[in-house]
TrEMBL record:
GO terms for biological process: anaerobic respiration. Keywords: Flavoprotein, Oxidoreductase. Residues 18-254 form the FAD-dependent oxidoreductase 2 FAD-binding domain. The lineage of its organism: Bacteria, Deltaproteobacteria, Candidatus Acidulodesulfobacterales, Candidatus Acidulodesulfobacterium. This is Adenylyl-sulfate reductase subunit alpha. It is an enzyme of class 1 (oxidoreductase). InterPro entries: AprA, FAD-dep_OxRdtase_2_FAD-bd, FAD/NAD-bd_sf, Fum_R/Succ_DH_flav-like_C_sf, SdhA/FrdA/AprA, Succ_DH/fumarate_Rdtase_cat_sf. The gene is aprA. One of its GO terms (cellular component) is plasma membrane.
Length: 634
C-alpha cells in the first residue's frame, strides 16, 4: 500500500493483553508453547510477528543440526566450553541454567515430529526411548531440519490459538507505563498488509526479535546484497527497543564474524567435524599448524583443546596478511578420503549430508555452487571471515542484562524473575540475552520457555496493575507513520523520488550506516581494525546520521518497515561503537582489534561492559560490571 492510501485510510486497533510476545522465532515459539502451562485460563497472551511464524527468524530456512544437546556432557562442561569460546566473560548462571534444561527441549522437538539422525541408522526408537543421536561434534546432533521452524510454529499456534497471533505486524517501540517508573506497559506497531496501527497494552512483554544483520557493509554488494550469513529480517529491534525502554545492555562490543564459505555463507562446521576436512591457504598449507603458536598469547582461551572461535579467525587473518590467501576448504580431498574408507551403504547418506543438506539451511550456497558450476567433490571452495553480526544466541554475546535463576545466580545477577531485564515486566531470551552465547536454536527455545514461566509469575504477583499509557493514540500513530508523512509532504519537490533535499530514503540511510561502520568501526575493509581516533570519527558521522533519522521517508508500507529497521540498526551500531570505545583492550582478536590497545588485558578488563540510556541526556552511559565465576576452571 502506498503512503497516500495508508495515511488517508488508517485505523487504530487497541489490544489489551496480559503477556505480549514480540517475535515468533525460536524464543517466541518456545514462550508460546510453555506459557499456557503456567497461565490461568483467563490470562490473555498475544504474539506479534513481522513475518509468518512458519518461516521466520534465523531458523526460517531450516537447519541441519541442533547445535546444543548435552547428552553425556554435564552443564559444568557446557559452561566451561561457552566461557572459553567467548574469551572468559560470560554469565555462567544463565549458561548453566540453559544447559540443564536443553536436552528435554530437544526430546520435545522429536515429539513434535522433528526427524533426528541416530547413530544406528536402523534404530527406530526416539532419544527418549534410548536411541543415541548422531553427533556432528561434541555439542551438535544432526537433524533432517527443513521443517524445524514449521514444527515449532505449529506447537505455538496450537498453544496460543490463531486469534491470539498477529502476523505481518512490525513492532517499532515499547510503551512505558505512565504511573510506574521503569515498568513496561506494552508496544506499538503497524500492519505490513493493511492501513492499521496496533497499540498493545500489556502487563509483561517478552521481547524476542533476534539479533542484527547489515549494520556493517556486507562483503556481497549490488546484485549479491540479499546474501548475508545472518537472517536478513532480524534488524536489531530487540536491542534497539530494549535499550530505548531503559534496559541495561551488556557485551555490545562483542560481535560474531563467522568464517564461512565465501559469498555463499554455507556452514563449515560439519565439514570440519563430520567430514574431517581442513581449510588450506593458497599454497596448500594448514594455517593453524603454521601460526598455531600465536594462540599462546591468548592463554587460557587459546590453549584449550578447542580454542575460542575468534582466535581461529585471528590466525587465518595473520596468514592472509602474510600474503597467503585465498583460503580453500578441501572439500574434494575430504570426500575422496571418506569415499575410500566408508562402507557402501554409508556413502550415499554421506553424499546427501555433504551436498543436499545445504539446500535446507543455506540455499544461497547451493545457488552459488550451481551458478559457478562447482561440484564440491571436485572443486574446493573459498572460505573467508564475513562482515560482523550482532547476536546473543549463536557464537556471539551481545544483548540485555537479565536476572538469573534464583538457585544459581549470585545476588549481583538476580533481581527476582529469571530472564527479566532491568526494566520491570520486560523479559527476553535467545539473541536478546547478553553474555551467554552458544544457546543456538534449542537453547533459545529453552530461554523462551523460562521467560514465559517468569512472565506469568510476574503478572500474577501484581494483580492490581493496569498498564497506563497517557500519550494520545493519534500522536503514537503519527510517530509510527512519520516516514510516510514526511514522504507525502515533500514527494513533489523532486522528479526522482530517491533524491530529495528534504528527506532520506531507508536504502541511502543504510548505505551511510554501512559505510561508516565498515570504515571506522572495524569492518572488513580495515581487516577488522580500529582505534580510539577512528571510533571518534565514526561517532561523529553516526551522530550526523542520527540527526537525519527524523527525515527518513517511506513511499509504501514495505519502505516504512525498512525505515524502522534501519533506524533500529543505527541504534545497535552506536551501542557497538561506544562499547568498543569503552573497552580498552583487544578481547576478541579475529573479530576485531583495537590497534591502540592490541593486547588482552585480563587484569583490568575481565569484566562486563554494560550500558544504559540516560533518559535525561538521551546518551548512553557505560560502566563495568563484575564477572563472577560459578564453575571453577582449571
Ligand atoms: C545463519 C545461522 C545458522 C544457524 N545455524 C544453527 C544450527 O545449525 N543449529 C542450531 O541449533 N542453531 C543455529 N542457529 C541459531 C538459531 O537459529 C538461533 O539461536 C535462534 O533462532 C535464536 O532465536 P531468537 O528467537 O532469539 O531469534 P529468531 O529465531 O531469529 O526469531 C526472531 C523473530 O523476531 C521477528 N522479528 C524481528 N523483528 C521484529 C519486529 N520489529 N517486530 C516483530 N517481529 C520481529 C523475526 O521475524 C523472527 O521471527 C543459526 C543461526 C543463524 C543466524
Amino acid at each position: 500500500m502506498t503512503s497516500t492510501e495508508v495515511l488517508n485510510n488508517y485505523t487504530i486497533e487497541e489490544i489489551s493483553t496480559d503477556v505480549l510476545i514480540v517475535g515468533g522465532g525460536m524464543v517466541g515459539c518456545g514462550a508460546a508453547f510453555e506459557i499456557k502451562k503456567w497461565a490461568p485460563k483467563d490470562m490473555k497472551i498475544t504474539m506479534i510477528e513481522k513475518a509468518a511464524i512458519e518461516r521466520s527468524g534465523a531458523v526460517a530456512m531450516g537447519l541441519s543440526a541442533i547445535n546444543t544437546y548435552l547428552g553425556d556432557n554435564t552443564p559444568e562442561d557446557y559452561v566451561k566450553h561457552v566461557a572459553n569460546d567467548l574469551m572468559g566473560i560470560v554469565r555462567e548462571d544463565l549458561i548453566y541454567d540453559t544447559g540443564r534444561h536443553v536436552d528435554s527441549t530437544v526430546r520435545l522437538f522429536e515429539k513434535f515430529g522433528l526427524p533426528i539422525f541416530k547413530e544406528d541408522e536402523d534404530d527406530t526408537r526416539t532419544i527418549e526411548e534410548g536411541a543415541k543421536p548422531l553427533r556432528a561434534g561434541r555439542w551438535q546432533i544432526m537433524i533432517h531440519g527443513e521443517s524445524y521452524k514449521v514444527l515449532v510454529a505449529e506447537a505455538a499456534r496450537k498453544a496460543l490459538g490463531e486469534e491470539n497471533i498477529k502476523e505481518r505486524v512490525f513492532i517499532t517501540e515499547l510503551l512505558m507505563d505512565e504511573k510506574h517508573e521503569n515498568r513496561v506497559a506494552g508496544a506499538i506497531g503497524f500492519s505490513l498488509r493493511e492501513a492499521k496501527i496496533y497499540i498493545i497494552k500489556a502487563k509483561a512483554v517478552i521481547m524476542a526479535c533476534g539479533g542484527t544483520v547489515n549494520v556493517f557493509r556486507p562483503r556481497s554488494q549490488a546484485e549479491g546484497m540479499g546474501r548475508t550469513w545472518y537472517a536478513i529480517w532480524n534488524a536489531g529491534s530487540t536491542y534497539a527497543m530494549g535499550y530505548q525502554a531503559g534496559a541495561e545492555m551488556t557485551t555490545m562490543e562483542n560481535r560474531f564474524v563467522p568464517n564461512r564459505f565465501k559469498d555463499g555463507y554455507g556452514p563449515v562446521g560439519a565439514w570440519f567435524t563430520l567430514f574431517k576436512s581442513r581449510v588450506l591457504n593458497a599454497h596448500g598449507e594448514d594455517y593453524m599448524q603454521k601460526w598455531g603458536h600465536m594462540l599462546q598469547d591468548y592463554a587460557p582461551y587459546g590453549l584449550a583443546k578447542v580454542p575460542a572461535t575468534c582466535l581461529w579467525n585471528h590466525v587465518m587473518l595473520k596468514d592472509w596478511m602474510e600474503g597467503n590467501g585465498p583460503f580453500y576448504m578441501n572439500t574434494s580431498g575430504a570426500m575422496k578420503t571418506l569415499f575410500e574408507t566408508l562402507p557402501e551403504k554409508r556413502k550415499k547418506s554421506l553424499e546427501a549430508d555433504a551436498w543436499e543438506d545445504f539446500l535446507d539451511m543455506t540455499v544461497a550456497q547451493a545457488g552459488l555452487w550451481a551458478s559457478m558450476d562447482i561440484d564440491p567433490g571436485e572443486t574446493n571452495s573459498e572460505v573467508m571471515p564475513t562482515e560482523p553480526y550482532f547476536l546473543g544466541s549463536h557464537s556471539g554475546a551481545c544483548g540485555m542484562w537479565v536476572s538469573g535463576p534464583e538457585d544459581l545466580a549470585p545476588k549481583e545477577y538476580q533481581w527476582g524473575y529469571n530472564r527479566m531485564t532491568t526494566v520491570n515486566g520486560l523479559f527476553t531470551g535467545g539473541d536478546g540475552v547478553g553474555a551467554s552465547g552458544h544457546k543456538f536454536s534449542s537453547g533459545s527455545y529453552v530461554e523462551g520457555r523460562i521467560a514465559a514461566k517468569s512472565a506469568v509469575r510476574f503478572v500474577l504477583d501484581d494483580p492490581g496493575f493496569t498498564p497506563t499509557v497517557h500519550t494520545d493514540n493519534k500522536v503514537l500513530a503519527e510517530k509510527v507513520y512519520g516516514p510516510m508523512i514526511t514522504f507525502e509532504k515533500f514527494k513533489d519537490y523532486s522528479t526522482e523520488s530517491n533524491v530529495n533535499p528534504n528527506y532520506i530514503k531507508p536504502r541511502l540511510y543504510l548505505f551511510r550506516l554501512n559505510k561508516l561502520m565498515d570504515e571506522y568501526v572495524a569492518g572488513t575493509s580495515t581487516f577488522y581494525r580500529t582505534s580510539e581516533a577512528s571510533l571518534l570519527r565514526g561517532l561523529d558521522l553516526l551522530n550526523r546520521l542520527k540527526e537525519d533519522a527524523p527525515k527518513l521517508a517511506a513511499a509504501n508500507l514495505h519502505e516504512l518497515m525498512r525505515a524502522w529497521e534501519n533506524y533500529h540498526r543505527s541504534i545497535v551500531g552506536e551501542l557497538h561503537l561506544r562499547h568498543v570505545l569503552f573497552r580498552e583492550e583487544t578481547r576478541y582478536p579475529g573479530f576485531y582489534y583495537r590497534t591502540d590497545h592490541p593486547k588482552l588485558d585480563e587484569q583490568n578488563w575481565k569484566v562486563f561492559v554494560n550500558s544504559k540510556l540516560n533518559k535525561t541526556t538521551g546518551q548512553p552511559e557505560l560502566f563495568k560490571k563484575p564477572y563472577i565465576e560459578i564453575v571453577p576452571k582449571n
